[in-house]
């Protein structure tokens, strides 16, 4: 173990920068020195932050700059959750990382209802990660010419984009004109990767081709028409990442037994709260608490937590059916992957292994689609439980018991 004193002194006198420690030290030593500097500088002991089990060599070089340790989040599990999808078929225990008391218990109750109903159905509707560079043109006439060129040369654009990756495939390139600005919304199949890095690099090459051919000036590689990590109607309508649906039929007896309410009451809660209430509020999410489950799974499984924003744009429906109700969730924009990013960190990788989706699938893309179907069914479980609690007027009681 290296001596910290010399490095601490250099950090204090400014001859060594915090971000440069890894240039002179092994990652674990750099993390320890950086943490020691902060402890000395602030007078705060960081013992818990400095206690961890993950591989620092990877985390400090691939996932986090200026690393000082880890923040640990309690990890619970809900299930078994029976899923009947095209890619996910069987029972799964859903890992949920959260500090919100009552969340895991609520999702677990939803899983119980789904299990008693014989499992939830799930299907992937669409799969495509997006990046949308924005170009400046000289006039509206020039803008139209650029858009026409893009529409007529998609094969050329695809060849340029795909030359940067051995996995990604360009599915579409849609030009959108606003005055003298031209946005080209490119959509890619990224297989088992969530794919933001992949599509960014590919789109940079494609943008060069467009600029060279049309004279349009690339202003920004992301023009927010993607849209990335922000609520947006375009993602709600066209989708981004995985567009996935899940549903389950609940009998009147099951609703009464598990949720202590009626199917009619659950349908009314969904209509007046999730649909009318959300519309009146101008919300882009028409659901009870889909983001709760998406966030907890994302943190547990090494996903980019900021993409919870897109996952929150879920639409929950409750349809009357003979003898009960059919409840479904539609998640138009679920950005998930099973390779790359945080999926290789030890604790997160184990959570993916728990679901049987760690690493690349066979064929490529299968694992990420399976993962999306499982998440959708987990969101469905959470929606069932909260709608049921609201319909039975049990929400405050549950939080009083478990949420303190």
Report on the structure:
The protein is α+β, with helices and mostly antiparallel strands. The chain has three domains: 15-63, no CATH class; 75-127 and 241-402, 3-hydroxy-3-methylglutaryl-coenzyme A Reductase, Chain A, domain 2 (Alpha-Beta Complex), CATH 3.90.770; 133-220, Hydroxymethylglutaryl-CoA reductase, class I/II, NAD/NADP-binding domain (Alpha-Beta Plaits, 2-Layer Sandwich). Helix content is 45%, strand content 22%. It is built from 15 helices and ten strands. Strands 1, 2, 3, 4, 5, 6, 7, 8, 9 and 10 form a ten-stranded mixed beta sheet that branches. The chain is globular, with a radius of gyration of 24 Å.
Pick out its properties.
3-hydroxy-3-methylglutaryl-coenzyme A Reductase, Chain A, domain 2; single chain; ten-stranded mixed beta sheet; 404 residues; globular; 3 domains
Please outline what is shown here.
This protein is of the alpha+beta class.
Question: Compute the gyration radius: what is it?
Answer: 24 Å
How far the N terminus sits from the C terminus, by CA atoms, comes to: 42 Å
Strand percentage, roughly? 15-25%
3D shape: globular
Number of domains: 3
Under the CATH scheme, which architecture of the largest domain would be assigned?
A: Alpha-Beta Complex
- Series of secondary-structure elements, N-terminal to C-terminal: HHHEEHEEHHEEHEHEHHHHEEHHH
- Indicate the percent of residues in helices: 40-55%
Q: Can you tell me the CATH topology of the largest domain? A: 3-hydroxy-3-methylglutaryl-coenzyme A Reductase, Chain A, domain 2
Mean pLDDT across all amino acids: 95
Could you name the ranges where pLDDT drops below 50 across 5 or more consecutive residues? none
What's the β-strand tally? 10
Structural class: alpha+beta
Largest sheet: 10 strands, mixed
Please, what is the CATH homologous superfamily of the largest domain? Answer: 3-hydroxy-3-methylglutaryl-coenzyme A Reductase, Chain A, domain 2
CATH class of the largest domain: Alpha Beta
What's the tally of helices?
A: 15
């Amino acid at each position: 173990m290296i001596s910290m004193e010399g490095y601490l002194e250099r950090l204090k006198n400014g001859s060594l920068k915090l971000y440069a420690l890894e240039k002179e030290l092994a990652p674990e030593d750099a993390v320890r020195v950086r943490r020691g500097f902060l402890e000395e500088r602030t007078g705060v002991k960081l013992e818990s932050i400095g206690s961890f089990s993950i591989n620092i060599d990877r985390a400090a070089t691939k996932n986090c700059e200026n690393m000082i340790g880890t923040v640990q989040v309690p990890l619970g599990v809900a299930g078994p959750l029976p899923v009947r999808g095209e890619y996910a078929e069987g029972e799964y225990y859903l890992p949920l990382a959260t500090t919100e008391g009552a969340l895991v218990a609520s999702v677990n109750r939803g899983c119980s209802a789904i299990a008693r109903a014989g499992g939830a159905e799930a299907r992937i509707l669409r799969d495509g990660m997006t990046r949308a560079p924005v170009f400046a043109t000289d006039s509206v006439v020039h803008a139209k010419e650029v858009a026409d060129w893009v529409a007529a040369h998609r094969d050329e654009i695809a060849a340029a984009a795909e030359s940067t990756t051995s996995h990604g495939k360009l599915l579409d390139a849609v030009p959108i004109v606003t005055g003298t600005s031209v946005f080209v919304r490119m959509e890619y199949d990224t297989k088992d990767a969530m794919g933001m890095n992949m599509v960014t690099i590919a789109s940079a090459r494609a943008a060069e081709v467009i600029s060279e051919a049309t004279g349009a000036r690339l202003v920004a590689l992301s023009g927010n028409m993607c849209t990335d990590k922000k609520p947006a109607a375009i993602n709600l309508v066209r989708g981004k990442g995985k567009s996935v649906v899940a549903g389950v039929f609940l009998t009147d007896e099951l609703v009464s037994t598990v949720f202590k309410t009626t199917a009619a009451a659950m349908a009314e809660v969904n209509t007046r709260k999730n649909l009318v209430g959300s519309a009146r509020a101008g919300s882009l999410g028409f659901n009870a608490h889909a983001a709760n489950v998406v966030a907890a799974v994302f943190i547990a499984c090494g996903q980019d937590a900021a993409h919870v924003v897109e996952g929150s744009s879920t639409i929950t429906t409750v349809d009357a059916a003979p003898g009960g109700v059919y409840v479904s969730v539609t998640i138009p924009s679920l950005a998930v992957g099973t390779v790359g990013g945080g999926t290789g960190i030890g604790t997160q990788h184990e959570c993916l292994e728990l679901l049987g989706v760690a690493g690349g699938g066979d064929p490529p893309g299968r694992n990420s689609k399976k993962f999306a179907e499982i998440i959708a069914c987990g969101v469905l479980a959470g929606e069932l439980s909260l709608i049921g609690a609201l319909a039975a007027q049990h929400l405050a009681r549950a939080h009083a018991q478990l949420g303190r």
